[in-house]
């Protein structure tokens, strides 16, 4: 609402003396932060509710109006900042949004501050990252591309009633763009790379350096042969991808948000590091696809590393969608992982074995890596002796490894105590027994299923491949 005088002109309110009252909005002098183009964020209240108030120069009225429109359209989601109201004077536009207690950058980089340290201790990384990608998925479902995903624009709010985990909110819609109904990409505005230095996708950077008359295609994107820190399974998966590598003109798509989110994922799990190195070298490294995911912090397991590597691929056509990321095994609980392996085993058991069906041939691809050479020699003697009582197993077969896992889970209560002790309790200990010895097993089965239409569409895998917003 614009405050009007009797002449129809905006009221000239004294905006140098705090608190400032405009309609139902009260702006206090406490500054929460600063943004581009003279933007300042203050504490305030709206109808008695504590809010953050974003003050933008009236010169950027059109940009601010677009931001409000996108906020109004997208804020009906638990992981997107909530919009309350806007007020306009002759100098500024004020936007009232949900007040948060910290940014992601605060809780990662300012752990010496007791408040931020306490919030950090309450957060489970997988829950935090799931909320980030859930918010991005919501925006993408509305054909909104954020274009500035970074730690400063991801805010932390207090848990809602009956919840014990802080809420994670996507904020700052100033650079967002909405695709038209028939659009899947848009031009990079006057060849300026939207976003923040060090968090922008390579296609943004390449297009930003072109003259308006120049063009660029996907062959300019860095190769995916980053051998320094790529996981063995990721390299094998890349070599098997049957994707169209014919060059096509570079486009700006939703995938720019996926790239930035991949960098944020690593930032969280490595306690503040960046996959493309130190600040001054990041953009050159991004263009050259030179990254390193070997964090000394130790918070990155094989599933997390695999997910991040897919998200930060140089070729945006090969990055997963937000929805695909939400169904990645990194986010699964031990129970869900164990049930998935068991149901996968059940599904492969119905395949013709001699000669092996095409699905079994696919399952056994790169078996040596998956079963650590010979899984029968890798398991301990207690389990090996117990397995040998009932049937013969092929130590080089992925199918037989899955079968052994499934059988022991089915008959766990009937196992001798010494075998139970070796395997550990279900689900955590039992799952860890197998995944610690065969770290690529879960990812291998997951990608065999995801990349095979008949398996991907099988109803038994629906609960694993169709993410929820839990």
Automatic annotation (TrEMBL):
Domain (Protein kinase): residue spans on this chain: 26-331
Entry keyword set: ATP-binding, Glycoprotein, Hydrolase, Kinase, Magnesium, Membrane, Metal-binding, Nucleotide-binding, Serine/threonine-protein kinase, Signal, Transferase, Transmembrane, Transmembrane helix
Signal in keyword set: yes
Subcellular location: Membrane
Topological category with respect to the lipid bilayer: Single-pass type I membrane protein
Family matches, as Pfam families: Pkinase, Ribonuc_2-5A
CDD domains associated with the record: RNase_Ire1, STKc_IRE1
Name of this protein: non-specific serine/threonine protein kinase
């Amino acid at each position: 609402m614009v405050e009007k005088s009797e002449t129809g002109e905006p009221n000239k309110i004294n905006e140098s003396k705090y608190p400032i009252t405009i309609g139902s909005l009260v702006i206090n002098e406490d500054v929460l932060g600063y943004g581009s183009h003279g933007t300042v964020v203050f504490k305030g209240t709206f109808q008695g509710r504590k809010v953050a108030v974003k003050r933008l120069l009236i010169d950027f009225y059109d940009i601010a109006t677009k931001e409000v429109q996108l906020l109004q359209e997208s804020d009906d989601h638990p992981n997107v900042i909530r919009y309350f109201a806007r007020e306009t004077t002759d100098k500024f536009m004020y936007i009232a949004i949900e007040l948060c207690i910290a940014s992601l950058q605060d809780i990662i980089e300012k752990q010496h501050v007791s408040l931020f340290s306490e919030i950090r201790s309450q957060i489970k990384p997988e829950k935090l990252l799931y909320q980030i990608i859930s918010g991005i998925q919501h925006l993408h479902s509305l054909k909104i591309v954020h274009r500035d995903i970074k730690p400063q624009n991801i805010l932390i709010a207090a848990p809602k009633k009956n919840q014990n985990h802080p809420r994670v909110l996507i904020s700052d819609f100033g650079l967002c763009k909405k695709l038209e109904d028939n659009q899947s990409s848009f031009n990079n505005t006057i060849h300026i790379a939207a976003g923040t230095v060090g968090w922008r996708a390579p296609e943004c950077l390449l297009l930003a350096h072109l003259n308006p008359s120049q063009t660029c295609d996907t062959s300019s994107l860095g190769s995916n042969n980053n051998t320094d820190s790529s996981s063995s399974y990721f390299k094998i998966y890349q070599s098997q991808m049957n994707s169209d590598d014919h060059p096509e003109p570079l486009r700006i798509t939703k995938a720019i948000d996926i790239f930035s989110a991949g960098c944020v994922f690593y930032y969280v799990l490595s306690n503040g590091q960046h996959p493309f190195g130190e600040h001054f070298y990041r953009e050159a490294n991004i263009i050259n696809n030179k990254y390193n995911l070997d964090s000394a912090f130790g918070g990155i397991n094989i599933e997390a590393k695999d997910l991040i590597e897919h998200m930060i691929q140089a070729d945006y056509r090969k990055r997963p969608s937000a929805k695909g990321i939400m169904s990645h095994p990194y986010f699964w609980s031990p129970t869900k992982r164990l049930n998935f392996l068991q149901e996968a085993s059940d599904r492969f058991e119905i395949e013709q074995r001699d000669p092996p069906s095409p699905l079994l041939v696919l399952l056994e691809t790169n078996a040596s890596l998956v079963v650590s050479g010979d899984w029968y020699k890798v398991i301990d003697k207690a389990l090996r002796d117990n397995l040998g009582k009932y049937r013969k197993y092929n130590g080089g077969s992925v199918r037989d490894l899955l079968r052994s896992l499934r059988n022991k889970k089915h008959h766990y209560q009937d196992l001798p105590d010494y075998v139970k002790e070796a395997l550990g309790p279900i689900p955590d200990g039992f799952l860890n027994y197998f995944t610690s010895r065969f770290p690529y097993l879960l990812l291998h089965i997951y990608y065999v299923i995801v990349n095979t239409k008949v398996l991907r569409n099988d109803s038994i895998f629906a609960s694993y491949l169709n993410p929820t917003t839990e």
